[in-house]
Design a protein that fits this description.
Layout lengths: L4 E7 L2 E6 L3 E6 L10 H7 L3 E6 L16 H14 L5 E6 L1 H12 L4 E7 L14 H11 L1 H11 L10 H8 L4 H12 L14 E6 L7 H10 L3 E6 L6 H4 L1 H12 L1
Parallel strand pairs: 3-4, 3-5, 5-6, 6-7, 7-8
Antiparallel strand pairs: 1-2, 2-4
Protein name: Tropinesterase
Enzyme class: hydrolase
GO molecular function, one term: tropinesterase activity
Length: about 260
């Protein structure tokens, strides 16, 4: 087993951050994210859990790795990573695109997941009524590059936009991504539909959502809530897509209640 530390560990196949001991809590980031976005969550929950946050291929500290153009492929990547650490059962949280990935993981290895958290995500990768279409985002990424893209898109993830205190974190992590991986991620999301799998999700599930999220609108959240049999819904008021950066204490309290 890898040593516990809050520093970056490079264990094949994935760079990741890990701290604490106890029941494993796995945190999966989304588009233009990385394990560094979970710094506050790792610090908070490592008192009671073995917190493990991988970097997806092509993003964050894994930016040198080739990306993946299918959600199912990213799910396999995370499963292989957990197998490399000999993690058998765990609580699983996925944010945004990471929420799609953990839905795919739940379909593949349901018996290993004790609890599931779907945070700022939905069952349909094209994200109906998103602030712009995936096609528009792809075109602007090609024209502007990764650095301008994370500043523009990241501003939509926070209520206060570019003035928000969370923007430097979002931009510093997002700028690490390779453009190829970001483009592949758009393909992965655009081609993914997890709606038929929702009724097969049987583990206790928390659906966590910021009430002004412009990426995943209420219709997506409502579908998760209605179709997953053992689902609880928590709406974080006055937050957008990155609620954990806007109201971390409230998000932590909701997660603590669910995990306990």
């Amino acid at each position: 087993m890898a040593a516990r530390t809050d520093e970056l560990i490079r264990v094949q196949p994935a760079p990741h951050r890990r701290a604490g001991s106890g029941q494993p809590l796995v945190l999966v980031h989304g588009f233009l994210g990385g394990s560094a976005q979970w710094e506050a969550e790792i610090a908070h929950f490592s008192a009671t859990h073995d917190v493990i946050a991988p970097d997806l291929p092509g993003f964050g500290d894994a930016s040198a790795l080739p990306g993946c153009d299918r959600i199912e492929g990213m799910a396999d990547y995370v499963i292989d990573f957990l197998d490399s650490l000999e993690i058998k059962s765990f609580t699983l949280l996925g944010h945004s695109m990471g929420g799609m990935i953990v839905q795919a993981i739940a379909a593949k290895i349901p018996d290993r997941i004790d609890r599931l958290v779907l945070y700022g995500t939905g069952p349909l990768g094209v994200m109906p009524n998103r602030f712009e279409t995936i096609m528009q985002s792809r075109e602007r990424l090609l024209a502007d590059g990764v650095e301008k893209t994370i500043r523009r898109i990241g501003a939509t993830w926070l209520v206060e936009g570019e003035k928000a205190s969370g923007m430097p974190i979002l931009t510093s992590i997002g700028e690490c991504a390779s453009q190829d991986a970001a483009l592949q991620a758009f393909d992965a999301m655009e081609n993914w539909d997890g709606r038929l799998q929702l009724e097969k999700i049987a583990m206790p599930t928390l659906i966590l959502w910021g009430d002004t999220d412009r990426s995943y609108r209420w219709a997506q959240i409502e579908t998760l809530w209605q179709k997953i049999s053992d689902a609880n819904l928590a709406v974080i008021p006055g937050t957008s897509h990155a609620a954990h950066l806007e109201k971390p204490r409230l998000v932590h309290a909701v997660l603590e209640d669910f995990l306990s």
